[in-house]
Amino acid sequence: MVKYTDEGTIIKGDRIIGEARKISDVHVIVKSGRHKAQRIILRDNLMCLIDKKLKFIK
């Protein structure tokens, strides 16, 4: 398994599991037009794992 630790690295997946000591409140963000999404920030000793990969990668 590859570990990405560089700043600015992006991971994409259909389902991602994240663990952290501190989690921010949920913020609603605009994705496109009327479509909305949610964003949280994980802090302090965190780890994310792609549980289900994307079917189509753009």
Describe the structure.
The chain is an all-beta fold. The protein is 0% helix and 45% strand. It has no helices and six strands. It has strands spanning 15-19, 22-23, 27-32, 35-39, 42-43, 47-52. The strands form three sheets. A two-stranded antiparallel ribbon has the order 1-6. The model has no long low-confidence stretch (mean pLDDT 90).
Supply the key terms.
single chain; mainly beta; two-stranded antiparallel ribbon
What's the alpha carbon Rg, rounded to whole Å? 13 Å
SSE succession: EEEEEE
User: Would you tell me the structural class of the helices and strands?
Assistant: mainly beta
Strand order of the largest sheet: 1-6
What percentage of residues falls in helices of 4 or more residues?
A: under 10%
Q: Strand portion, in percent?
A: 35-45%
Give the biggest beta sheet. Answer: 2 strands, antiparallel
Give the helix tally.
0
Instruction: Indicate the low-confidence ranges by residue numbers.
Output: none
